[in-house]
Amino acid sequence: MADRGSLQPWPDLPPGQKTLRSTRAWTLLRTLRAHGWLRPRRLGCLFLILVLLLFVTLWVLSSAINGITASFRNDPPPITGDPLRPVAPTSLPRTSSPAADLISDGRLIVAVQNAPGLAERDPATGAYTGFDIALLDLISRDLGVDPAHISFKPVPAGISTGMLARHEADLALGGLEITPGSRNGDVAGPYLESPLRLAVPRVSRASSLESLGDGQVCAARDSTTAAALTGRLGDRLITRNSLSECANTLGSGVTAIAGNDIALRALSATKSGALRIVGAPLGTIEYGIALPPGEDALRERINTVLRTAIDDHTWTGLYQRYLGAAVPDPPAVR
User: Fold this and answer.
1) What is the DSSP annotation of 239-291?
2) Highest mean pLDDT: which range of 58-62, 64-68, 193-197, 249-253
3) Which residues have a Cβ under 8 Å from the Cβ of 318 and sit 6 or more positions away?
4) pTM reported for the whole predicted model
5) Strand, helix or coil for residue 188
C-alpha cells in the first residue's frame, strides 16, 4: 500500500483535456500539492489565519472611524500657549463654581498688557516675565493649571475689559489699575500699590506740580492718573495711549508726564536716565487682576492666593526680584 504521506502522480486526463496541464492554474495546483499546502490540516490553518487578519482589519478600521467621529463632537478646540499666535475665544461653562470649570478645562486664557517690571514679553522667545506673571504662576497652580499651558493674548491698554465681558479671556493683568468703576467685584486684589508721581526731563528745573507753571502734563488715557489730575490741571492735562507715547511729547509744550512710580522708573531706565521723578506723591494707584463679570468664586480664590503669598513672604521675594530692593508694605487684599 502506498504511503499516505508520499506524493502520488497526477492521473492522465482525457485526450481533449491534455491542454489543462499547460495552464497557469494547473501549474499553481501542482506547485501547492508538491509543497503540501493542499493537505486538509494546512488548509484549515490558512483559513484561520485569513479569518484572524480579517478581524484585525475590521477592528483597526472601527477605531479609526471612532476617532474621526469624535473630532466632530462638541469638544473645545485646542488652545496654544504661543503668545505670538491668536488664541481662539472660549465660552466658559456656567456652573456654580467658575473656578472648578477652569480646573476641569486645564488651561487659562489671559489678556495681558505690556507693563515694564510687571508683564514684559521677550521679543526673542515670546515668553512673558515680571511681577504680575510670577503671581499668575501661583494662581494657575492653585487652579490646577500648569503655567506652561497659560495662553496669553497681548492687548493694548483699555481693551481687556470688553474681552472679559465676551469671555474671550479668563483673566486680565499687566499693570491694570483699579479704578472706581472696577471696584464692583470684577477685579481681584489689590496685589500692588504704587504712588502717583511726576517725571520731568533731567534738564528741567521743575521740582513739583506747582512749579511747572503753564506747562502741560501728559498721562495715559483712561488711567487712574488722568482721572486724579483732571480736576487739578483742567486743559493742561493731555492724554496718550501709554506713558511711552507721553514721553515722546516732551518738549512740544508738554513739560512733564504723570503716572505710577513703578512705570515711571522703568520708563526712565529705557530713556538712559533722561527723566527724573520730582515732587511728593500725588496719590496712590492700586493694581488688580480683572475677571469676567459675576465671577465671585474665582475672585475669592485668587484673593486667597494673593493673601497667602503676602503672608508667607513670597510677595516680598518677587518684589525684590522684579521691582527692586526697596520693598514697600504689601497692600491689604480686599
Assistant:
1) EESSHHHHHHHBTTTEEEEEEEHHHHHHHHHHTTT-EEEEEEEEEEEEEEEE-
2) 193-197
3) 131, 134, 135, 309
4) 0.65
5) strand
User: pLDDT band for position 82 (50/70/90)?
Assistant: very low
Please tell me which residue, 129 or 161, carries the higher pLDDT value.
129
In whole angstroms, give the CA distance from residue 52 to residue 40.
19
Alpha-carbon span 67 to 229, nearest angstrom: 61
Question: The C-alpha cell of 65 is what?
Answer: 472611524
Q: Which pLDDT value is given to residue 94?
A: 46
Integer Cα distance of 326 and 319 in angstroms: 9
| Nearest Cα residue to 309 out of 299, 319, 300 | 319
Kindly give, in sequence order, each residue whose CB lies less than 8 Å from that of residue 173, ignoring residues fewer than 6 positions away: 110, 111, 112, 113, 118, 119, 132, 136, 289, 290
Whole-number Å distance between alpha carbons of 293 and 179: 15
In whole angstroms, give the CA distance from residue 208 to residue 278: 6
Tell me the average pLDDT across 22-30: 64
Instruction: Specify the DSSP class assigned to residue 9.
Output: P
Q: For cell 490741571, what's the residue?
A: 233
- Taking residue 20's Cβ as centre, other Cβ atoms within 10 Å add up to 11
d(CA 150, CA 278): 39
Q: Give me the DSSP letters along 78-107.
A: P----TTS----------S-HHHHHHHHT-
Pairing of strands 187-201, 237-240: unpaired
Residues 153-167 pLDDT 10s: 998 876 777 888 888
DSSP helix/strand/coil, 24: helix
* Predicted confidence (pLDDT) at residue 70 exceeds the cutoff of 50: no
3-state secondary structure of 62: helix
Cα 163 to Cα 127: distance, rounded to the nearest angstrom = 22
199: Cβ contacts below 8 Å, ≥ 6 apart: 256, 257, 258, 259, 264, 267, 268, 275, 276, 277, 278
